[in-house]
Amino acid sequence: MKLNEYDYYLPQGFIAQKPMNPRDHSRLMVLNRLKKNIEHRIFKDLPEFLQEGDVLVLNNTKVFPSRLYGVKEQTMGKVEVLLVKLMGDDCWEALIRPGKRVHVGTGLIFSDELHGMIQKINIEKGLYTIKFTYNGNFKEILRKIGQMPTPPYIKKKLERKEDYQTVYSENEGSIAAPTAGFHFTKSLIEKIKSKGIEIIFIMLHVGRGTFEPIRVDKLEEHKMGMEYYYISPSSAKKINMARLEKRRIISVGTTTTRTLETAFQRETKSIQSGAGWSDIFVYPGYHFNAIDVLITNFHLPKSTPLLMAAAFAGKDFILDSYREAIDKEYRFYSFGDAMIII
Length: 342
Known about the structure:
The protein has helices at 138-145, 186-194, 208-211, 233-244, 254-263, 304-313, 315-327, and strands at residues 27-32, 37-42, 55-59, 61-63, 67-72, 78-88, 91-97, 107-109, 114-122, 127-134, 171-174, 198-204, 227-231, 249-252, 264-265, 270-271, 274-278, 293-297, 338-341. It has 2 domains: 3-63 and 161-341, QueA-like, CATH 3.40.1780.10; 67-145, Thrombin, subunit H, CATH 2.40.10.240. By secondary structure, it is α+β, with helices and mostly antiparallel strands. β5 (67-72) and β6 form a beta hairpin. The strands form 4 sheets. A 9-stranded mixed sheet has the order 2-1-19-18-14-3-12-13-17.
């Protein structure tokens, strides 16, 4: 299966630069897989497409301010660092720009309180291991000087850090937001609950695996990076009960979907609770075990989230829907509009 089959052209100006206000006033494209039809609505209309007994599953991870700006100690040349993974002992794997101008032993200065030293370079993966030294509490320093890791296609500076969080974010640890959840407001969540729909939270810390580009032509050769997830025993029990009772599992976002599909045990045909690492790559041909409906955004060409949406909706149907979204001038990517695939 070729990656180029999942490319499309997005004209300039379609990439949303800031969140919709109110959030639930973003547009909602409704895709019906059985009827193969498309409907155009507003996200606040979502309860109309849900029914009593449905289970809505959301990822309550919280983004931490993982982007740091600093200088090289010896030359004062500027560097941008994106923390990717805590390795222990105050060491982090990170992405660095410009990366070609740092080497093992390069000292980095981010503030009077926070310094770093390059310990190791993985050229193949483009990752740098940084050993940090600091005065005070590391997390508090990050909250003070760190920036939210918005994607490079968002050129506008965030007015507020919370704009790059879901309203239900709770467990800090992601370097990118589960953006399908951006459209929910607290009042919409209450309206959904009042309709007899159960809301369940699980967690996957979004890491490099979700947004790392696919660099191979054959999809079968792509390897997803591992991302940490956790499903509580009570959440697993509720989801499994709903499945036994033939109630729909509605997954909000590709990260939620990957978590559920990873935790699904084929032997018992149930969701396993607990912590683990997900590296599942979902692309067309995949058989979904854990979800019945998917809520997601409009994704980058040739990206893993787009491939998951294509696996769920069908390749031709999803690409047709993207063309229609462009014709109808939908907003794309992280702060863009949403679709529900029924």
